[in-house]
## 1
Amino acid sequence: MTVTSPERAAATVPGRPAAPRPNRMRAWATRAPLMPALIFMIVVTQLPFVATLVISFFDWNALYPDQRSFAGFANYGEVLTDPDLRRSVWTTVLLTVTVVLVSLLLGLLLALLLDRRFRGRGAVRTMLIAPFLLVPIAAALMWKHLLFNPEYGLFNGILNAVGGDGAPQPDWISEMPLMAVEAALIWQWTPFMMLILLAGLQSRDPQLVEAARMDGASDWQVFVHITLPHLRRYLELGVLLGSIYIVQNFDAVFTITSGGLGTANLPYTIYQTFYQAHENGLASAAGVIVVLGSLVLATFALRVVSSLFREEVSR
């Protein structure tokens, strides 16, 4: 004899509505506490982006609000054809590629160092992480005044101590402005790369490395044939996340050079277009292009992160 529950019997009676599924109710009950955070995120992030997207299609100068008119894709065309904006795009690409690659290389060297056991490793690791914990504007001010200053900066002080009174005293920011900005960003982002790669090194299979050494493999062979292939996903993740952050960097350019001497990247140019030229539509179009580029990079970054999780779960 088969016993049927009342809910199931009610669901099978013709003409009677099916009872709500408990699993669906439970799912809504678990998602309900997240709704305020989701609504807040939409209000804070998505609505301003939609407003920026709408403004980007208008010829809108804040000094002449009554002359606002629909411009279509004219602002985007001007962003892609204006010489100053194209120069800022090239500066952004050059700055991003240089900072990401150099900080990734230095981070790999530091990660390999910290992967070894030695006395005081915890203290060294804490000191190496410290630059990444500084407020970006404070780090840029430190490089501008404490290190690059031609009169009392540390770099010229070292040159004077080593070479005497006849040692050159360069004005680092004026003579090599883009390199000055890159040096400050590399110093700040190398610990970030180091942490990612150190996590990758510590996830290696130690038995595989030990077996390779027992077979007579040298340190270089272990690094090339075992460590580097294992770190490929972590290197990709560092490149993608670093690119997302550095493409949007504004603090170092604004603080160290104020966008002068050929260092104006796209975020700084957007700042000039919006706050100084008051071209709201043109600045919004440039901002949308930056957001779309960041979304493309973020998509690749999320794919790399998901593949890392799948690899960890499958072990």
## 2
Amino acid sequence: MNKAGSLARRCRRITDAAWFSTLAFVLILANAAVLGVETYAGFKARYDAQLTAVEDVFLAAFAVETALRALAHADRPREFFRDPWNVFDLAVLLLAALPFAQQNATALRLLRLARVLRAARFLPQLRVIIVAVGKSLPGTVSFLLVGTLLLYVYAMVGWVFFADDDPQHYGSIGRAALTLFLLMTLDGLGDAVRGGLEISRWSILYFASYVLLASFVLVNLLIGVVIQSLEEAHRSEARRERPASDTELLHDRIAAARAALDELEEGLAAVERERSGGRQERPRVRA
């Protein structure tokens, strides 16, 4: 246990150093550059062996990085797997080593591309955005359901009133839904309103209510969901950083206390041995 704690402390001093994160980030950027170079067929055909060797070097470097991060949690392995980025890094490395990835060029390229996504680990603001996107998914799903229902209702109404006069845009439920989906971005709204007024003057109510609900109410609701998710992500990131430093300090104090207790026990044991040795020698002197 003491050996694991000592190893973890030494590895933590490496992984917590600023140069370690900088080096890992530079390697990720270099890996991204090499992946971009490989898209040029002529360059890849000419330097295929060299590019393969460079990729192997990157893979080995990322494997060493992940191993150091894992060894930094040698005294508490569960903490390593509680960090989603550690799990992501480990999964990318293990999947790249599987036979199906080595034999499938597309899968191997995707896994190499996944290594580039690790750059978010070293950019706190980008990490916050990714967390916010994940937290906004439930609200986004609700938004999509409401938006789909609204689009369907208005598409059916548009088909009923405009299908005969404008079959190109409202001839079926699919065409009507596509037309209204494009109108959600307010693109071509003027032409749609003019075409509707030629059919009926009451069509202005149809388009005005749709634009009000779809382009203003729903979009603002989505923006509200995203902003709330960003605020939650900022708070969770702040909580994640503060307890991490406190936990590290607490673990170091516990390790130091254990080491002091071990030294104290060894000292007491030595004193007991000296006392017991003294008792055994006294009878011999008397004899």
## 3
Amino acid sequence: MPPAATPDGQPSDGADPSFALALGGGGARGFAHVLMLEALEELGIVPRVIAGTSIGALIGAAYASGISGPDIRSYCEELFHKRTRIVRRLFSRWNALGELRSGGGSVFSGERILEALLPETLPRSFEALKIPLIAVTTDYYLQRQHLISTGPLVPAIAASCALPGVLRPIKLDGRVLVDGGFVNPVPFDLLKGRADIVAAIDISAGPQQSRGQMPSLIDSIIGSNQISMRSVMREKLKSSAPDIMIRPDIGHFRVLDFYKIDEIFAESISAKDHFKRACEAAIAARRRA
């Protein structure tokens, strides 16, 4: 683990600077996060704390539990290389498709899906994680950010990923919670003062060239969420920015393109290299200071 910093956030004399990591939301594009975790491991860096939104909370939880970047990558590849493998996993846990739905409607229970697909070694609570994790959700009725860093882990992750129209909201501690991307798509601001260097990975999609066709209902729902996320990010960056911001060039992948895992990994390699160089430069600058 990284050495402790002094109360003002500065590294102790002779200590390497500490890192905090923010992982943004973006569905299948979150596979890029795995390569960034591999980059940190190759540099010998262990984040002091991780903040994650949506898929960022999911990948962050796996890493915070002690599963290495390469092992997360292998697990994801094994799971998503064949559609039949996921179907078998789901139906071995739930007897019928209706059990994955909410009240007979068309939206699915993210909590049940996660319970079927997540590694069995994943802890059941935040307190059992090896690295502190902050999961970002949106309080639907209060219309504001709600952060979860204690208590049951899977419901919190499901809440952070609960995109309306696709996954049902989660009721937790008297709150109705939905996707954290509506309020904080890349939660680097939550990490200010908690480490010497704050690194953020933004996997939201930017403007795309028109394909000359009307989007489907599901694409309209997801695309509107992406527009909201980019708008929030633009406003956030006007007031503050992380020490390191990486935006892999994978915006052309759709949120539900989980079966394009190999392509996403391949097109994230350059971002991984950029991230490693940025981390090395930040460490060197901090040491000089």
